[in-house]
Every structure is written in structure tokens, then in C-alpha cells.
Write a structure and sequence with these properties.
With about 170 residues, this protein is an alpha+beta fold. It is built from five helices and ten strands; from the N terminus they run αβββαββαβββαββα.
Length: about 170
Amino acid sequence: MKKLIILFLISSSLFSQEVENFKIVNNSVIWETEIPTETSIEDLLKKLKLSGNFTNLEIIDGTLIGNLIDHDIDYKSLGHAYMHTDMYVTIYRYSAFLSIQKSENEYQIKFKKIEATPTVKNYFVDVNNAIGIETIVLRKKNSEFHKRFITKNAFIFNTTFLKLFN
């Protein structure tokens, strides 16, 4: 019995998923990356405020926090056509809680509580009702990513989020 439990624990840790900087942590999706930098956290704060993509930005105990607001996923710049891209990429805007910590020569950037808000009313969704990204990209009781997210859409999301900090 002990061997079975140990085997289960090892196998579940081996199969935990991380795709294009997206991870599943406690049944929630987070996006986390590190970006090399020489600039101060204060300079980054000014840059992010000027971008207009974030609100409630402030530095608390050396950590920059704030919110990403209603951001479109940029599938077009990657050569994807509207009709060949999943609906949750094309007609949703995304918001998230942002935290950035600076270590020696890099920023550790994290989006948590990622939410999707539809921009078009249809039979499946109602406009202005935000839903957690987990509803869209996870399956099997929020334990793994959908195959389509892994093979195509995670790259689109990751590229869009990285552009926010370049």
C-alpha cells in the first residue's frame, strides 16, 4: 500500500503541467516568467503606468502589484486568422492580478486570477460576465490543460503577455 501511495505521488508530480509559462497551481492557472533587466522597479512602474494596460499599480515592500485591465489577445500579429482561431482568444478580453519582484538582474513577473470577459454576445456567453480562465483552458477537474490550449493557444497568450513588458 505504501508503494502505491508513493508511486501516485511521484507520478502526479511528474505530470504536473507547465505550458508556455502557464502553470496549474491549486486548480488555478497562473502565468509566470522571468525577464532580464537592468532597470529599477520604480522605472518599470512608470513605464507600466504610461502603457495604459494596468491599473492600481503600486510598490509594496519591493513588489510591484497592480491589475491588467481588459486586454485583447494579439493573435493577428502571429499570423492567425479570426475564423481559424478559437473563440476564447478572439472575442474575450483578459484581466489579471499582477505581481513583479526584482531579483539581481531580472524581474519575476506573475499573473494570477486571470479572468476572461466576452466582448460579443452569443448563445454561449453573456457580455460583461467575467469567468476564470480555468473554465476555458482546463479539463479533468482543473487538473490539466486542454490539448488545444497546449498545442496552439498557450503560445498566443504567452506572446501577448510578454509584449506587455517589452
